[in-house]
Amino acid sequence: MEDKLKHSEKILVVDDDEKIRFAFLEVLKKEGYAAVIAGDGEEALKVIGSEKLDLIFMDISLPKITGLEVLKKMKEEGINIPTIIITGYGIMQNAIKAMQLGAFDYLTKPLDINKIRELTKKALTKSTTSGDVEKDNTSFNADITDRYELIGRSQRMQEIYKLIGMVSTTPNTVPVLITGESGTGKELVARAIHGNTMGTGHPFIGINCSAVPDNLLESELFGFERGAFTGASERKLGKFELAQNGTIFLDEIGNLLPGLQQKLLRAIQEREFERLGGDVPIKVQARFIAATNRDLESEIKDGNFREDLFFRLNVVAIKLPPLRERADDIPLLANYFLAKYNEHLNKKVKGFSSHANSILCSYSFPGNVRELENLIERAVMLARGEEITDDILAKMLSVNPSVKDPVLPINGTTFKQSRDYVLNLFEKQFVENKLTALHGNVTAAAKSSGMTRQNFQRMMKKCNIKAEDFK
Ligand SMILES: Nc1ncnc2c1ncn2[C@@H]1O[C@H](COP(=O)(O)OP(=O)(O)OP(=O)(O)O)[C@@H](O)[C@H]1O
Ligand SMILES: [Mg+2]
Q1: Fold annotation for 171-319
Q2: 325-470: CATH number
Q3: C-alpha of residue 373 to centroid of ligand 1, in Å
Q4: Taking the domains of the chain in order of start, what are their residue ranges?
Q5: Which among 286, 288, 297 has a CA at the least distance from the CA of 319?
Q6: Per-residue pLDDT tens for 398-430?
Q7: What phi and psi values does residue 274 have, to the nearest 5 degrees?
Q8: Residues 197, 250: contact at Cβ < 8 Å?
Q9: 30-68 pLDDT, tens per residue?
């Protein structure tokens, strides 16, 4: 038998689920790695302390000590083993915390075997060739407010969370450019970066470059000295100064006039500027975050945007997906806004009828999350009974009737394969919706589904869904 290892690296897998540990062992063995396992955080720390490891895969929710706490301990003790965090459900703060604590990457269940293989390779080559990518030791901000929590568990949003986490560990001289269609959450991302980087009390200063008249924008940004122009009777500080060591959020940067683009470039490059009418250089201490829904690359081609400024801003690029490209997040967002507007409007709408749900999921939302939010707000306002029904939504969206018969994802060749595929998707979404709406209360979710608790739990297990992820 060929039981020889192809590689000398040793990998630790930490998960309380035996099936997951087993699956990992199989994959890793096949690839020729040595693998050890641990079932909880305590055991993991023991193994980490006693064995020479090259890579760790670790679940975030572990008995005794959580995955994040293990990561934190490793960081405190200066143990530098690339670690990939795994989670059942990707909420923003988990991904951000994992990246801040130095995790190499962040994976969500259900696990994709190819992704495991690929990440293993990537992590192992990186750790041997580039021990020099020392991360800035920005302090880990434990009591992050969730006021600006982004909602979404789709793969696309996971990538965004990771980026936010990574940005927040870089020095604030690194600018960020956020692009995406209107209503995709650009400002929310800017605030999340700010909130996860800074301790409390640092200012977040935003300015909308298209809302301020051109002739005022310059003095708004840079400030002016007394007598700089007629009417300047007092010195006034600009946004760059007011931001101190917080964040300057330049919204709609695509609308900035060419003259100002050049001055901005200099301020970013040299981290220095002068007030209008002044000659004392003033240091910029804040982080620049710019956002736009325009395609800057084509603006450059058309001569409307400076290429050098683009390259300068684009060091970290965060591209937000339109909602229709992460439609699997729609039910979650809809329920989130439902709860929000129930509270605001003092209503008690419990959920969406299944037709209403399918309308939401198949609508293309050209106005993205903002449109969805407005829609739910109006629907909550109009709802008479316990549910938001399809006719309310249909009226507001003037959707075409084919939405009532949504196109299903038919994947697979045989009838059985295709049916199982759709059925699995349906079961997963159904269970998730119920648990989201009822905050992870399995008994209530089963009751509301007209199922026995056992049957509901069986379905949860089949779909690999854990109640605690919804609490
Ligand atoms: N992922 C999300 N989770 C929860 N709320 C969101 C999310 N994305 C956007 N929103 C909400 O949608 C609205 C629009 O978001 P935001 O203002 O950040 O969008 P934007 O990309 O800046 O849009 P614009 O280009 O029109 O300025 C806000 O009310 C915001 O709270
Ligand atoms: Mg905006």
Answers
A1: Rossmann fold (3.40.50)
A2: 1.10.8.60
A3: 9
A4: 10-129, 171-319, 325-470
A5: 297
A6: 654 444 455 677 666 788 888 888 888 889 888
A7: -120, 150
A8: no
A9: 889 999 999 999 999 999 999 999 999 999 888 889 999
